[in-house]
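Table S2 (continued). Query chain:
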Amino acid sequence: MDDQLTLFDMPDEPRNPWEVDAEGDILAAEVVFAEGIETPLDYAIPDALREKVQKGCRLVVPLGKANRPREVFCVRVHTLLPSKIRLKYIAKVLDERPLFSERILALTQWISEYYLCPWGQVLQTVVPAGVRTQAGTRVAKLLTFSRKGRKALQIFESGEKAIPEFKITPTQSRILKALEVLGKPATAEELARQGKTTTGPVKLLLHHGMLVSHEERVSTGAGDIDQTSDRQEDLQLNDDQKKAMDTLLSMIRDTRNPSQVALLHGITGSGKTELYIQAIREVVRSGRQAIVLVPEISLTPQTVNRFRKRFANIAVLHSHLTDAQRHAEWLRILRGDVEVVVGARSAVFAPVQRLGLIVMDEEHETSFKQETAPRYHARDVAIARGRLEKATVILGSATPSLESWHQAEKGNYRFLQLPRRVANRPLPNVETVDLRIRDTNHSGGAIGRKLHIAMNECLREGHQMILLLNRRGYSTHIQCPECGKVLCCPHCDISMTHHRTTNEVVCHYCDHRVPAPETCPSCGSTAIRYSGTGTQRLEVEVAKRFPDARILRMDTDSMRGRDAHENALGRFRAGEIDILLGTQMIAKGLDFPNVTLVGVINADTALHLPDFRAEERTFHLITQVAGRTGRGPSGGEVLVQSFQPENRAIQFACHHDYEGFAAYALPARKLLGYPPFGFMARLVIRGTHPEKTLAFAEKLGAAVRAGFGEFRPRERVLGPAPCPFEKIQDNYRFHIQTQSPDRERLAAILSTVRREITTPDDVQWILDMDPLSML
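Corresponding output:
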């Protein structure tokens, strides 16, 4: 986009070149802005751009009295009747072809209305930055044959005597022959390389009319991704898989009801991925395409290679791609060169043209909910897209979200089960270790005596193990025993964590860092105490206990490099690592047959957070990490250390009893009107002045209550109240929670409040429909 627009960019109009009087019918583009203006605006299409302006393209338009150039999205091209309204002209078209299909535009409009977010902001999110900036491409001058050049080459190759007009040298003939062999336009540099010469003879051919040139945007090669992989045939299905597969095939082939949703509840190691692959195979055979969504944390090379081994053309979309790579993959998808798209949350927007199936693996994962605007959940978007494009949707998990489970119970989703592991391998034995009984179970440090003995046995037998601790850093709590002062971040209401590798104390919310203090910052005491265990301290303890073991820590601190995650898992898979320890990134998506032991260091880390889903998340995490073992012939064992092993969520997880957990958790949700028995919205208000922020939060809460008028059964508005983390990045935070069994009514009330309330300049607030985070 030009930094500055001038009048020379505009069509030659008799009056103001920026505006036109609507004296006759006008062809106009309805546009939406990525930020600032939420209402769509109309702009006139000048004659010079009539063939270029298309629905789904980005445009540059003048805005305001100063006619500041703004980038916008065209969502409609239509004809306006004569009126007294003076329209401004579109200045520029940024895209040669639309970025959005009709169906994606409809999907983004649905997201805008469903999640109460401006349409332009949704569109901005859908298109990756690398696509908007055309990363990894450049404008190049491409050369191709003229009639004269082609004839000159024919004469030279025939050996006939050429008249001067068609006479070429042997070097020039090599260049023209190289172009013929390439079979497509090429740059001067490429032709010189193929013709084993310099660009001088190429330029002479162009000068003499043997070649003609045109400009075209071409790839620089920076976005190339290695697609090679050994091919593998489909695996033989067991009886459970065949039964589920028959149902999936009938859904995919059902032309009368093509957009059905299936919930595939398969225990860990039951072969869900093989069902996904064979369902995709059916879709690809019929000439359609598939999207596979997996949590970012599970998007390992192992996962991607499973699909590369079965399908010739797949694209991968995830956060570790460079902008150039993401753009290259996007273009491959847009051209229709791809059969399967594998990616994280945002891959739900991949521009496939013939969508037949969306698979969402680990559908319970909270990372499928975006925590910045637009705050969409990929599961709901996938189902909405399936409906728009007449595509089947498969939601798969060993621990489905209670929302999806409830939909299956009501018959809104087809319910499929895989109750047994592949090859009838048994689920691992899971045992709890009560950390309160120190004499019998504790041997000092984070690793209890029973776990220590099991680790010793595992190493002695030459097997591998996984240790889960969902806390980063070395010491998670720093306090002075003299004055009682807890070391907290000065910008956040969060205690600091000691990171031994850099000898710093770090805030995990704003990344504030200072050298680790040797004395209390408050009273100067040298008795300052570093306690609590994070993954760094666990790594040190394991190394002391098992000095001969090869240990690898995986958390966001140790996996910062672009290929660090891939390299770490590659070493573990190759048997170069004996003990893999880390946070939840090691709990999901891994399949290593030699892992015979899993240790959960502390199952209570998230159990008592002020969130009604805390028990559900604890159940998910224990069940998922337990599923990493017992996948080989040697079986597996899981030890879960806890200060509250009698907790129902922990007990159900230890017995691999999802149905029991659902039967326990759902009645409490129903009693309180929580999802899936009601709908919820959360409003978070933040500002640098606590009193002013609270005053606005109270005004906002009053407006929401007034919108409800008389509350119906199971409707309520709670707050404003301080957020559990009251201060983050120097902003004081308050939240309001609203609930209703009628989502349309709830959305209408909040939409009106959002539109009508005036927000002070130094206060900000966000609206999260269907929130997953309550902190």
